[in-house]
């Protein structure tokens, strides 16, 4: 299938970036953070393993495999707003059937985060019934890069702050580990040994609850480059766990278009075809200034509707038109390449880019397309499928 071919191609770029010592993504900082996190895992009360809901399996935090599964470990499927809702439900059932505690969340949604905090507090109370001695609870967020650990830690801190007075001074960021530091006094009940370890290599520790006291510790993302499967590598790159420049924006955008062309998402945009196409009345391609003039006219026309996003609408319509009128075979790699090349050219107009071709055009279209995909404006895609009738890997 064409998507797999694009995935393997992109995955090969990921592999070569991984093998590139020195300029790959796994530098000395990540190696040090990785060791520091592993040392702390046995010391905290709860581990939140943050994964990307678009790739619930591929975004696994590999280092947790060496620790036995436990009720103190929670898989958080973050960025749920970007994933296919029904697939997220399937994944949640899958993890639950395999005795994993799993929670889906959008870290940017306050209500979601509040509910999650309630859920965490309930689990902390359960823990306290068993372990009366632990007056203070520590929770560490771990995960590969870019899954939203910091976004979630900040949101939890914001919704969990108990009073303005307490809220102000809770964030504690590295520099000082001195026990005498007055800021340390606020971390009442936190094991001093754990605390001093925390501030050495990990990011920050923040209070998110009182009675009982709950502290969350954010950590840097870790993605070991060894043994990375090519298709997993491609999904990690598309969802942003690996920096774009390491693999190439054009390759990423091509992979995304291959996915979109075989999905059902673009079919939701069929209604856009019936809408008036302003481009037919004003030929802005012939006039480089025409596009901004056109935008002005459109804005006037829709002045009362602030939600109109013309570029997004044109991009959707362009993609819909290209796929739905394509007469080639979407299972055939060469024909899909032809379709994608045609889509790139058509997207140049939809993005109102100047007339140019080649590498530069590819790069500019790709940057814009990836941005729309990653902010959820081109549909909801879950790239990992739930294994059917397969044993759950015992290591996860
Ligand atoms: N749409 C969406 N974006 C998110 C969510 N959580 C985080 N992000 C975005 O994902 C990117 C990476 O988040 P960050 O917290 O820095 O990830 P970290 O590397 O795991 O700490 C940022 O652009 C966030 O705004 C979410 O739930 N939904
Ligand atoms: Mg972070």
From TrEMBL:
The keyword Cell membrane does not apply. Signal peptide: none annotated. GO terms for molecular function: GTP binding; GTPase activity. It comes from Tetracentron sinense. This is G domain-containing protein. Keywords: GTP-binding, Nucleotide-binding. Residues 138-226 form the G domain. The keyword Transmembrane does not apply. The lineage of its organism: Eukaryota, Viridiplantae, Streptophyta, Embryophyta, Tracheophyta. One of its GO terms (biological process) is mitochondrial translation. InterPro entries: GTP-bd, P-loop_NTPase. GO terms for cellular component: mitochondrion.
């Amino acid at each position: 299938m064409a998507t797999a071919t694009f995935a393997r191609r992109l995955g090969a770029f990921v592999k070569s970036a991984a093998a590139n010592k020195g300029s790959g993504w796994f530098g000395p900082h990540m190696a040090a953070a990785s060791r520091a996190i592993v040392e702390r895992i046995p010391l905290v009360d709860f581990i939140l393993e943050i994964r990307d809901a678009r790739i619930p399996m591929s975004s696994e935090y590999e280092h947790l495999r060496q620790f036995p599964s436990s009720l103190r470990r929670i898989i958080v499927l973050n960025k749920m707003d970007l994933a296919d809702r029904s697939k997220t439900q399937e994944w949640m059932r899958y993890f639950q059937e395999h005795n994993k505690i799993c929670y889906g969340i959008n870290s940017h949604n306050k209500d979601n985060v509040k509910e999650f905090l309630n859920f965490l507090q309930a689990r902390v109370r359960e823990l306290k019934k068993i372990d009366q001695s632990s007056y203070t609870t520590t929770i560490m967020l771990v995960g590969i890069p870019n899954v939203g650990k910091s976004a979630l830690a900040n949101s939890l801190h914001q919704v969990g702050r108990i009073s303005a007075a307490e809220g102000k001074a809770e964030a504690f960021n590295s520099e000082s580990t001195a026990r005498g530091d007055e800021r340390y006094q606020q971390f009442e009940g936190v094991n001093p040994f754990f605390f001093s370890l925390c501030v050495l290599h990990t990011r920050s520790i923040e209070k998110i609850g009182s009675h009982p006291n709950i502290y969350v510790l954010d950590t840097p993302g870790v993605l070991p480059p060894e043994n990375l499967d090519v298709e997993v590598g491609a999904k990690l790159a598309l969802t942003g766990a690996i920096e774009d420049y390491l693999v190439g924006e054009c390759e990423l955008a091509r992979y995304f278009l291959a996915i979109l062309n075989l999905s059902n998402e673009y079919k939701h945009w069929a209604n856009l075809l019936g809408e008036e196409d302003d481009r037919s009345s004003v030929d802005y391609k012939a006039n480089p200034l025409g596009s901004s003039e056109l935008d002005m006219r459109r804005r006037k026309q829709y002045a009362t509707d602030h939600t109109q996003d013309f570029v997004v609408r044109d991009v959707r319509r362009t993609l819909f038109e290209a796929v739905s009128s394509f007469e080639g075979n979407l299972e055939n790699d060469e024909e899909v390449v032809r379709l994608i090349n045609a889509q790139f050219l058509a997207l140049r107009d939809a993005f109102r880019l100047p007339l140019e071709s080649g590498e530069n055009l590819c790069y500019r279209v790709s940057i814009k397309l990836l941005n729309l995909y990653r902010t959820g404006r081109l549909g909801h895609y879950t790239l990992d499928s739930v294994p059917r009738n397969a044993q759950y890997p015992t290591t996860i």
